[in-house]
Amino acid sequence: MDKVLFIIVLALGISTVLNLLLKKVGVSQIIGYIFTGTILAYSFGLQDSSQSNTLEHIGEFGIVFLMFTIGLEISLSKMNNMKKEIFGNGFMQATFTALAILSICFFIFNLDFVTSLIISTAFALSSTAVVLSYLKSSKEIYAPYGQRATGILIFQDIAVIPLLILLGFLTNDAEHSVWIIIKDTVISALIVVGILFFIGRKVVSWLLHFSASSEEDELFMGSVLFIVISASLLASYFGFTYSLGAFVAGMVIAETKYHHKVEYDIAPFKDILLGTFFIVVGMKINISYFLDNVALIIGIFILVLILKTLITFMVLKISTNSSTSLKTALSISQVGEFSFVIFAVASVGGLIDKELESLLLLIVIFSMLITPFFISHINHFVDSFIKDDYIALLDEKAFKTREGHIIVCGYSDIGKSVAEHLDEMKLPYVIIDNNPKNVQLALKQNKEAYLGDMSELAMIEALHTENCASVIVTLDNIDKKKAVCETIRQYTKDIHLIAKVVSQDEKNKLRGIDIDVIVDGKYEVGRILVDKMMVCQMRI
Asked: How many other C-beta atoms lie within 10 A of the C-beta of residue 427?
């Protein structure tokens, strides 16, 4: 135990010094953690020791808290809004990538089918830890490509669950049929989700409200940690990963009014534990084996990167512009951390041999080492040679000095009408819409329009919304409309917020938000009809 504590203290010291040095040259702290693990492994011989296993268990909770913060970003309403990105793009990307790699492993490298299946499913996954850490820190998560990358990563994280179940079936000596395993798994999943959502939601809301009302930060933080770990243990008890329970717990809290505070308070714990995970990754690096096979490792990595980029680009190009498609494809072209889990389970079950496992692990590690170096340059790389004529780049500096303008959120039929009336009154305005077709149409009509999502804080900050006179929300989707109004009011209360609704149900959903004017379309049409009738009578 004393040696473990000594190693942890040493890891903190080495990683701190390395990350301070690397930060000065703009290198991700992930690299510092991985190098720390390698230094410790070769200094104390920890590659296969019990201390390494202890640290690995600690590091696993880094992934747990990362999945929890992802859950905080994905409420049920937001998941419904992102169903195309998650269940459309995500499913196609993961499936087509796995099939392509399966074919290459089986037909070109002549591996057996089970080994090919394991490699293909593992390599189809991307690194949630690396990509989302960058997207969130750089606020690129709110950009169009960040939203699509997030949706695909969420699907991949969800897909890990059936993949691990599949491995369990493959390592099972046929004691049960696949249908029995699937049936038991579905029943267990329904129980876990049911407990966490239908029972846990009330308990979570009460606990957070009770701890927040105490005005003691440590009690609130303790309540959050209790919720995360309890949900993780519940999922584990039913045979799922800790990460699934944490992810669902995050989604439950996302439905409460405390999700912003929870996300802010949990960040230090998540970052430290995630750092431990990458230290353990660094401990798995076998330098001599890497040097002996460096050409093969780099060659396979480049092949996987090109293949995943091409497949993701083609999947997204169906519904998205070339620039966003390529940025998304490049951002998720690496192999992810859940591959470590898949290869470890497969190796223990005798599905792949140890030497092949070592090679695969080094490919994944090399992939995660390289990703932080190029992911921050994706925007510049893609924008330098792909120009989508309907995408206007938002110049944040220009909005710093702009004042008194109007922001029109949405350019559907109502948005077009609003713009026409503002033109007649010669009032300055800017249009924001998350639909590229609407932005393209507005630009063709010589209007100032930008592609963006006003429900995301980064877009509101980039527009310096506090300097505008009013925001007019003309969106049709009530969930998106509510999210936009809530985010604007969280950002500033000093501007006029006007929103249109089409039913009493929509008006009820917006209740509690400080909206200056809610315009009911049906009511206004009725009033105008009566006004017109009175005008006709006066003419008689």
From this structure: 13
* Beta strand pairing call for 406-409 and 470-473: parallel
The stretches of 449-496 forming alpha helices (DSSP H) are: 457-462, 478-491
Which phi and psi angles does 470 have, rounded to 5°? -150, 155
Q: What is the pLDDT of residue 277?
A: 75
Which residues neighbour 275 within 8 Å (Cβ) at sequence distance 6 or greater?
15, 29, 33, 62
Q: Which helix (H) or strand (E) holds 473?
A: strand 470-473
Structure tokens at 416: 């077009």
State the pLDDT at residue 172: 61
d(CA 89, CA 78): 16
Which segments in the chain show pLDDT lower than 70?
1-4, 26-28, 46-60, 62, 73-78, 81, 139, 142, 165, 168-169, 171-186, 188-189, 239-241, 270, 387-397, 539-540
pLDDT at 56: 61
The pTM assigned to this predicted structure is 0.68
User: What would the two tokens of residue 401 be?
Assistant: 């000095």
DSSP codes of every residue in 16-79 = HHHHHHHHHTT--HHHHHHHHHHHHHHHHT-TTSHHHHHHHHHHHHHHHHHHHHHHHH--HHHH
How many other C-beta atoms can be found within 10 angstroms of the C-beta atom of residue 20?
Answer: 11
| CA separation for the pair 270, 392 (Å, rounded) | 36
Rounded Cα–Cα distance for residues 337 and 34 (Å): 13
**Given 3-state DSSP classes, what are the helix, strand and coil percentages for the chain, each rounded to the nearest 5?**
75, 5, 20
CA 501/CA 478 separation, integer angstroms: 8
Contact 522, 502 (CB under 8 A): yes
| The predicted structure's pLDDT at residue 180 | 65
Backbone φ and ψ for 433, nearest 5 degrees, come out as -145, 145
Q: Tell me, what's the pLDDT at 473?
A: 94
What's the 3-state SS for 65-80?
Answer: HHHHHHHHHCCHHHHH
Beta strands in 280-370 (DSSP E): none
**What's the CA gap between 414 and 452, in Å, rounded?**
18
Q: What does the DSSP assignment read for 174-185?
A: SSS-HHHHHHHH
Query: In the prediction, which pLDDT does 387 show?
Result: 60
